[in-house]
Write a structure and sequence with these properties.
The mean pLDDT is 88. Helix 2 packs across helix 3 (129-136) and helix 3 runs parallel beside helix 4. The termini are far apart. It contains 9 helices and 10 strands. It is an alpha/beta fold and 295 residues long. The longest helix has 15 residues, at 148-162. It is elongated and about 100 Å long. It has 3 domains: 9-71, no CATH class; 80-171, Rossmann fold (3-Layer(aba) Sandwich); 175-285, Trna Endonuclease, Chain: A, domain 1. Helix content is 31%, strand content 13%. The strands form 3 sheets. A 5-stranded mixed β-sheet has the order 6-7-8-9-10, sandwiched between helices. A 3-stranded antiparallel β-sheet has the order 1-3-2. It has a two-stranded parallel sheet with strand order 4-5.
Amino acid sequence: MTDEDGRKYQIDNLASPSPRPNLMYEYKGYKPPHNGWAISKEKMEQWDKENRLWFPPSKKGRIRRKRFLDELKGSPVQNLWDDIQMVSSQSNERLGYPTQKPIALLERIIKTASDEGDVVLDPFCGCGTTLVAAQKLQRRWVGVDISHTACRLMKKRLQTEFKINVQLIKGEVDLKYLQKLAPFDFQNWVIVDKFLGKVSIRKSGDMGIDGFTPEILGAFPIQVKQSESIGRNVVDNFETAIQRINKKKGYIVAYSFVKGAYEEVARAKNQNGIDIILRTVQELIDGKIEEPLHA
């Protein structure tokens, strides 16, 4: 509720928990509760002058106390933050990024650790939730991510929501760096960082599908090969996997492909209408993902 001064409040019980003869008085035509009021008549008059009483429209009702929101200190925040909901599949703020955090969580962290005008740095900013929270809270910010797609997503998100100019400064990731990655890290770099996708949970019987693009982009299968000279048989097997999950599109990523792989891609497209996109690691480094390659 809101009073005439614009202050928000809720009404609370004003009855005594136990009988008190000295509190059995009538006030402004309102009879006392069964055990009497919780405060003296002098206190009742004082609260009335201070606009701290709520009077029901009927004299048969009970006077109640106003508890103003701006006077409640609330409970201190504990170490376990279980009052903030995760970004679910039905959440309005969901973007499909696999590690997306709720904006309320980042707002709390930023409010706790900084003041207006401070600089917030997120060196692994993904879909940009930290940057959005910082912008809302009037902080300056810097975001860093290895994924070109993530950076483009962040730029579009910030420009759409805040109508601001966002500058992208491109860094370099080379083949030498990627060749040193462990298989799991390399797979994550391809699927999560470059495609903003989700790594497949199944590690056996996965039909060669290592992950999927985001749901909002079709949830198309991705196969990752940390090797050179991928040929016709890999494409043929991947086509079978795509058909089994009723998809019409998929991606294979490797360091290089031989001519037979491109020929098999063309056959799958012409005969079965399945679009298999071959991408080299260098092309992902350069930010090229969607346009099909040609032999």
